[in-house]
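FW: tagging you since you asked about this chain on Friday. Here's the raw sequence from the shared folder, copied in full. Didn't touch anything.
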Amino acid sequence: MTSPPVDRLPPLTPHGGPAVPALPWPLLQSIAAVANAPLTSIAEELRKALDPYLGSSALVIFTEDCTGRPQKKAGLESIISGVSIDELDSLRASLSGEEPWVGEAVIAAKERPVFAMKYLSSRALLVLTDPAVPGPVAGNADADLDIAKYLWHLAAHRIHEKVADAPPAYLLESRAASAERLRVTSELVDQHATTLEIVAGALRSTALDDAAARAAATDLVAKALVRLRTLSDRTTDLIEEPVAKAFERLREDLLPLTRFSGVEVQFVEPPLNGRALPGEVAHAARAIVRGLLLAMLDQPEVRRVRAQWDCDGENLLINVRDDGGGTLAADASSLGRLDRRVQALDGKMQVDVMAGWGADVSVTLPLDAPQAAPADVSAWKLGSRELEVLQHLASGQRNRSIAGALNISENTVKFHVGNIFRKMGVTSRTEAIALANSFGLR
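HL: got it, structure written out here
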């Protein structure tokens, strides 16, 4: 586990007071739980860790690092199921710096007491609804706040770190979630836009009386249409990244590494009008180039490395080559780890190493997820109810939400999920979601 940068975390000391000589064991356990939590449960672990210092009815993390699931939530179901990206975006825009803010804000379509903090490095936002201070555990309210800030910064940094590393499991789950979010959003936008256009057409009709009322209603509907389209564009922005911007982020990420290596690194930019990259592809591409660069710099006699991105409309094309003596082993474990990232996105990696001429690595990452026939899932021999549960599971719903949608108990959902895992030959929700979506089940 990589520790967060010291300068990004507040000191665990009371304001103006002496350094705390020793941390209580429960706090150390909470720090470890947050630091080691997978992305799927980090919100729940953070809420548990914060509860002794800052209680809440619900906790929401909004981070654009995770393109598939920008919200990570725990707490009261009526809040976490209703909170919207638009509400979080508006709240984040109103905050400046990283200092905590307490006030009233609209969350889950209702104005509520809120505690909010940003993490400037990744623009992540923490929101606690109905905040309460059960302590002061440390005997000092300011010390409790310092601990809360430390835990939040730790969680935000871990999210940023995990996404940047782009492990295969994350890429699979993120691609599935991104595709489902975009599909559902597009359907909702089309449905509501059609309804509003019909209403607007009726209100513009000359057969109706009261021209002033008709004009006012028409203007209201027009604004609602613009708002709806804006939300649709915002969703697209969250799950896609312009290729030129993604490449610039790569160059910035590698700057500290290349500045002191003594090796010249040449960056060949992609075309500015290249197709936008799905978020998981952009994350994977940066992690792959970073890994290749590290592997190449580890060779003797390397003086120059060239990294190039291109886009053919269907794939992101990556090429990294060095001018070394060709000592990089094509079957090296470091390259194997990178190849697993590539395979997670149905891509291909080719490694050519020639003695005396250096290494040349080409990677092709498809921009669209492969489509497979839903009929292929028949091999799993799922019952009709199990198939229903899997469809809800594949869309990212939790057991409680699935139980409510199917009008069954949460224990029954857990029973079906266990059977589904066994029949599919998987051991986790991430694997089940990725496999289901790869077979076209959404």
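FW: Residues 1-10, 13-21 have pLDDT under 50 and may be disordered.
HL: agreed, and The domain at 374-438 is CATH 1.10.10.10 (Arc Repressor Mutant, subunit A).
FW: great, closing this out.
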